[in-house]
Sequence to fold (214 residues):
Amino acid sequence: MADSKPHSKLSVQKLFLIGYLIFSFDTNSVYSDESKLSAKQSKTLKETFLYLETLEPKKIKIDKTTYNRHTQFESHFKFPFSGKKISRWIQSRIKKYNYGATGDYVAMYREGEVLLGRGFFTLNRLDRVLVLLHEARHADGKIYSHVICPDDFPYLNTRDWKIHPAGKKGCDSVPDGGYGITASFLFELGAYGYLSQTEAAYRYNSEISRVIRD
Fold:
């Protein structure tokens, strides 16, 4: 039979300490394997996920007709818009993070690992989220590999004008590839008022321009 005596003050303190340690471990747990990142880089990555998880649905700021016509988030992700769910979606696909040279890219996906370049850590938090979303999509198979952008591709690289997409593997041939899902995410941010309609449209158009349709 369970002891009916009140817990001693020391026992209560021990229980509180154990609960605190469990809670602390859970909320500050490493996102996948960051052992190859510096402490500062790891902190930046955690802050990126924490920011993403604040982006939850609220009252839609645009008219419902426009929203229903253009939203593609749920059809791409198979769940309603939610920063917390997106965070879990990314983390279920990216198992390791590393740091190194990435050439003309800010990040690269390869066999469950994302290689983050120096440029990744200079981006603002929204752009870091977009990069992680994009790279996580590559984990879903070769169908989401990039295709060569047309030689006459007229658009600039929004993050670095010295990088020219034309004639390089920087476009997608499927609507729900890396660029398609980031576009759908940005549309939701504009619809829910996390971005102004001007910024959301600019960013959305930049991403969706990389989806090449026959």
In short: The radius of gyration is 21 Å. The CA atoms of residues 173 and 214 lie 8 Å apart.
